[in-house]
């Protein structure tokens, strides 16, 4: 037999074994994720696809084996050799600062018949009608909201309450004696300790004007211009539990959001106090008490990209993270950001978050010019209105994002292919739809959380 045919037949045998094992592993992973549809389809493929290669080897179909081997070789080249990464899908550097008074959380705190309320809407009359829509709804963790669950909501509020207690500790006294520690030593220690404290990924960046809000929009400093002498920022992520997120927009999502805001706050307050004890000013930026725009800082610190849904997309957990930031005057070693055009290209093509968004707040369009830069822009008013109706911070986009799948061998292999090849990105979108569905249903609440009381009636 011709050696080429021998190699082709042997390739068919080896590939049939690898393909069967891979699909069987995928089936096990899917069932562990409680994704029965995906598990069944993986099992079906495991029974249908490998036999084609196995039969070819068994019956010595030389020509067929050669064709199949050539197909595998070409496919491998097309799907794993880096090419096709589009550039400039989004712009990097905002031209203006964001005023925190304009964000939905600040507008939600405005009370009718108060000076702040009257002043804001006299300057922004177009926003009054929009904001009156969310004010008609029950509100976050409210009893009459769609997903009301007494225990889950009270648990979330307990976490938010605890975060509020950290607000008085975001800044503080500075040790008058400055440490002589080197920036490389301190930078390494901060990263290692942050991970020890529970941070997932940590990055450091030099601060730019666009990282800061122009004015405070919450608390006693409302309306004050933000001034800071800080030159560097430590940004980190904390992971949101996949099972808690998967049930979004049910009550588990607001529990998990609150818990991870708390974890991010705890770590940030500790880090800031540590840096101040070394003799350098430092401020923690935590839920409800920010001076900076966390996603922009985290992006520039190399932790991910800002995708279609407006959230930071990380390479391994996607948007399924919460962020913490500490700013300081100490000039730390910075991390070089490499723009992940492959991830942005995947966002460009996927659009699943836009498909599943209950309020249709996420655009299907390509990035457009917003305030002078090309980026995706969600409809924050309709998004927040749905939050107030649901009683949770929704999270449906986060739950359905293909990047949010668990961090394991199967999904990391897919992420590697997405990073390498434009063709693989196209295939990955269709594969995710095939296994999980284009509009997957919300998962059940974790078993230890009581079901929605209203749904039981």
From TrEMBL:
Matches recorded under Pfam families: Fer4_7
Keyword Metal-binding set for record: yes
PROSITE patterns: 4FE4S_FER_1, 4FE4S_FER_2
Keyword annotations: Iron, Iron-sulfur, Membrane, Metal-binding, Transmembrane, Transmembrane helix
Iron-sulfur as UniProt keyword: yes
Superkingdom as given in the UniProt entry: Bacteria
4Fe-4S ferredoxin-type domain: residues covered: 336-367
Transmembrane segments: 6-31, 38-57, 63-83
GO molecular function, one term: metal ion binding
Stated name of the protein: 4Fe-4S ferredoxin-type domain-containing protein
Organism of provenance: Marinifilum breve
